Amino acid sequence: MEIRPARPEEAALLTGIALRAKAYWGYDEAFMAACRSELTVDADVIERSATVVAEADGQVLGFVSLSGAPPTGSLDQLFVEPEWIGRGVGRALFERARGLAVALGLRRLTIDSDPNAEPFYLAMGATRIGSIPSGSIPGRELPLLALDLEAS
Q1: pLDDT tens digits, residue range 131-150?
Q2: Domains along the chain with CATH numbers
Q3: Is the distance from CB of 64 to CB of 46 less than 8 angstroms?
Q4: pLDDT bracket for residue 120 (50, 70, 90)
């Protein structure tokens, strides 16, 4: 598996991965339709942010995207193709994101997590610091996590 910078022309491919990965958790069609805009990856965002993909044999397996400026940034998206979940792709992407964040001078990353992904982020060293309203589903609260990069 190789981790490399994402290319703007991969925006639609990454959007598809994000949608499939979110649907993996059993969300219904109405929920997925409500999330579609928030999960859409924009080519301009790829150019402006630190976005990398994990790839094996020419297939993109997942991606992660960071934004922000020192001292604090955010892990905006981390999605893995469903058939690759649990096989180390997410961990590799998270570790690359951690390294990129440190290289960018960030001391802390915040993560608006899907409730189903929270255990993964906690296992990676993040801590829950509260909750935040969903950008897609009115009344839904999401775990708000933080990763202290100075301690990692």
Answers
A1: 999 888 888 999 999 999 98
A2: 2-106 (3.40.630.30)
A3: no
A4: very high
